[in-house]
């Protein structure tokens, strides 16, 4: 399916009330509404904590707002996780309501029917970012522990399958964005990761999304090696267009191949930084048109593009007024271009 500058969000919103968050979503994202992640409501909806339920050894301290792996507990919990994984018991890996009120209120809201919807969108934290962020009690990242990285990846696969099942019970066409912010660190001197192995974990999750009958997107809100993502068989690439378009254009050959294979670019053109205070609908529309002209100069015409419009990143850390303004600008830019 070709998208015509349809609007959607990266995932998180700063509201504490899930009903209000869903109202904002459905009011502004008519064709691709998404379930809102609400980290201000509770630490349990932090993007890493939200998907850590059932992870062997996971210790969450809501008061201190910390999460880590206690390796002394892993052995006693890992067998059950693998048993449930091998049994295909996706309900065991559900995302509980206390960790995703936005998801549950979103599903309820879909019962009323929304005539303009093309797809409903969900999201999951990617295995590379999750495993780099999450550490054990000795501050060692999970990505450096082969067994923990493996079980974490399997957990994310099952949670994604469960999420797609729940969304498809309400609407047949689903998009899942895999959030991989830590890909900005790949290749730096501070992160020494076996990217072949990490890539296999990401590919496993991409495959799980597509096998479940959903479209798969990847969201990265910084600069990275875009060829690494464009060659992974994803359907949608979402990036911070506002800040990194020139860097993105260095990968023109890969972009052309991605688009020729039916890929969609989700343009993160509405900034979530202080830059939003300087922008208007017209300035952002003009900016994106200029960006697409740069792509056209390299042989990719706008009419050949399948495009989605998004904020450059999630909005969960912003104040509510600024988040509302960004959401409204996403809608207005989408309407102007579509």
Characterization of this structure:
The strands form two sheets. Strands 1-9-8-7-6-5-4 form a seven-stranded parallel beta sheet. It has a two-stranded antiparallel ribbon with strand order 2-3. The model has no long low-confidence stretch (mean pLDDT 94). The protein has helices at residues 18-28, 71-87, 101-109, 127-133, 146-168, 195-211, 226-230, 241-248, 252-260, 281-297, 320-337, and strands at 4-7, 58-61, 66-69, 120-125, 174-179, 215-220, 236-239, 264-270, 307-311. It is globular. The protein has a single domain, classed as TIM Barrel, CATH 3.20.20. With 338 residues, it is of the alpha/beta class. 42% of the residues lie in helices and 14% in strands.
Write the layout of secondary structure elements.
Layout lengths: L3 E4 L10 H11 L29 E4 L4 E4 L1 H17 L13 H9 L10 E6 L1 H7 L12 H23 L5 E6 L15 H17 L3 E6 L5 H5 L5 E4 L1 H8 L3 H9 L3 E7 L10 H17 L9 E5 L8 H18 L1
Parallel strand pairs: 1-9, 4-5, 5-6, 6-7, 7-8, 8-9
Antiparallel strand pairs: 2-3
Helix pairs in contact: 1-3, 2-5, 5-6, 10-11
List keywords for this structure.
alpha/beta, 11 helices, globular, 7-stranded parallel beta sheet, 338 residues, 42% helix, TIM Barrel
Mean pLDDT: 94
Number of strands: 9
- Beta-strand percentage range: 5-15%
Q: Portion of residues in helices? A: 40-55%
The assigned CATH architecture is: Alpha-Beta Barrel
Quaternary state of this entry equals single chain
Mind summarizing the main beta sheet? 7 strands, parallel
Low-confidence stretches: none
Strands of the largest sheet, in order across it? 1-9-8-7-6-5-4
Total domains = 1
């Amino acid at each position: 399916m070709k998208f015509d500058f349809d609007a959607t969000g990266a995932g998180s919103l700063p509201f504490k009330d899930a009903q209000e968050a869903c109202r904002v979503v459905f009011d502004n994202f008519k064709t691709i509404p998404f379930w809102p992640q609400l980290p201000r409501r509770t630490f349990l909806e932090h993007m890493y904590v939200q998907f850590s339920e059932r992870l062997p050894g996971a210790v969450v301290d809501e008061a201190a707002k910390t999460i880590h792996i206690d390796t002394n507990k892993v052995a006693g919990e890992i067998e059950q996780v693998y048993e449930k994984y091998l049994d295909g018991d996706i309900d065991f890996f559900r995302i509980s309501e206390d960790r995703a009120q936005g998801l549950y209120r979103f599903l309820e809201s879909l019962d009323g029917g929304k005539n303009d919807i093309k797809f409903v969108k969900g999201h999951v934290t990617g295995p590379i970012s999750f495993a780099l962020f999450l550490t054990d009690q000795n501050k060692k990242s999970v990505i450096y522990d082969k067994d923990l990285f493996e079980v974490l990846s399997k957990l994310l696969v099952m949670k994604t399958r469960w999420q797609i099942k729940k969304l498809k019970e309400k609407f047949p066409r689903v998009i899942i964005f895999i959030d991989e912010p830590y890909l900005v660190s790949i290749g730096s001197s501070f992160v020494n990761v076996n990217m072949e192995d990490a890539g296999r974990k990401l590919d496993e999750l991409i495959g799980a999304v597509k096998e479940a009958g959903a479209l798969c997107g990847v969201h990265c809100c910084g600069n990275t090696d875009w060829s690494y993502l464009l060659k992974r068989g994803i359907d949608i690439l979402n990036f911070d267009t506002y800040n990194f378009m020139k860097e993105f254009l260095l990968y023109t050959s890969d972009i052309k191949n991605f688009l020729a294979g039916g890929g969609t670019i989700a343009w993160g053109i509405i900034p979530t930084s202080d830059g939003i205070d300087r922008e208007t609908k017209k300035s952002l529309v003009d900016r994106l048109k200029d960006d697409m002209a740069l792509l056209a100069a390299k042989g990719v015409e706008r009419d050949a593009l399948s495009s989605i419009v998004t904020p450059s990143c999630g909005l969960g850390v912003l104040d509510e007024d600024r988040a509302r303004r960004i959401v409204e600008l996403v809608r207005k830019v989408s309407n102007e271009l579509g």
